Amino acid sequence: MAETNETKNGNGKKRNPVFIIILVILVVGGGWFGISKYHHSLHHEETDDAQVSTDIVPVIPHVAGYVKEVLVNDNQQVKKGDTLLILDDRDYKIKIEEAEAALATARANLGTAKASTNAAKSNIATSQASIGTIDAQIDAAKVNLWRANQDYDRYANLIKDHSITQQQYEQALAAKQTAEKQLTILEEQKKQASQQTNAVAQQSTATAQQISVANSNIHQRQVDVDAAKLNLSYTIITAQQDGLVSKVNVQPGQFVQAGQALFSIVHSNQVWVVANFKETQLNKMREGQRVIVTADAFPKHEFEAKLTSFSPATGATFALLPPDNATGNFVKVVQRLPVKIEFIDASDSLVKKLRPGLNVSVDVHLDAPVP
């Protein structure tokens, strides 16, 4: 009877091979899974340490002032050149008027300097003409002196023989002395006229220097006017590119400083992915390879992309406090290198819905370059 029960039990085990079948299925499935994963790892590199990125432009005023009007709201779509903010421009208009008044004064000073120069040139011409007249008079005086000397010499010889009267001799002597004094006077006048001409010439040179200074002053005042107008134009703050406005943290009446970041514009029409791969994954990765991107926001959609560039340094290098392995105990940590991945079809409606900072997973096809 016991033998019969053992026989039945043995026969029962042989008739119920469920455990063996499940074990075989698990072994075969595990082997297939391992082999497929190994084969996949030979041709793919994956990471989920990736985020969507784009250009984010801060809105920064060039000049300080009180906010007069805010023309945008949170998350508003703007175009390049759209007005975002308007600052109170009354102070800057006054500065333009002051600069223009200073420019008018500088131009008036230039006119005065030119008038002085023209007057100096006229005086020089008059002095030179006077010197020419005196030279002609000196020549005539020399002729008169020569004739007086000749008459005096003749009368001096005749007076010795008493051929002429004493009065005639004295007249010849007086004529000689008069001619000599007249020549001396004319030469002194020429000297004075020459000195006056030199003084006028020096004055003209100084006036010419004043003209140069006045021209420089006009240029400086014109620059002040241009700078004042430029600052006035800065009171109207416009968008530098298309995009979406972030949270607007500024209100009318608020005073803003030059260089103060007010809010940002996100250039959402052009997005890309920055994936942080381990340094052990970079061996076979090359620029131009095909990439499949899957966003957590759209898990059922695969985005076609390509690997475009590698960062020049690891993320830790650009950190605010980069690690210093030369101090303390060294612990080797696998570093990650940012890799830029661009979407092939930027016009895809879902690509336009991606926002900076969204998490994505990337799969780089090592043997499939983008055609």
Would you write up a description of this structure?
50% of the residues lie in helices and 25% in strands. The protein is an alpha+beta fold and 371 residues long. Helix 3 (90-160) packs antiparallel against helix 4. The strands form two sheets. It has a six-stranded antiparallel beta barrel with strand order 1-8-11-10-9-12. Strands 5-4-2-7 form a four-stranded antiparallel sheet, with no helix packed on it. The protein is rod-shaped, with a radius of gyration of 52 Å.
Task: Report on the biggest sheet.
Answer: 6 strands, antiparallel, barrel
Can you tell me the residue ranges where pLDDT is under 50 for at least 5 consecutive residues?
A: none
Output the structural class.
alpha+beta
Q: Count the helices. How many?
A: 5
Helix content: 40-55%
Q: Determine Rg (CA atoms, Å).
A: 52 Å
What percent of residues are in strands?
15-25%
Distance between the termini: 79 Å
Overall pLDDT confidence: 82
State the shape: rod-shaped
Strand order of the largest sheet: 1-8-11-10-9-12
Series of H and E elements: HHEEEEHHEEEEEEEHE
How many strand segments?
Answer: 12
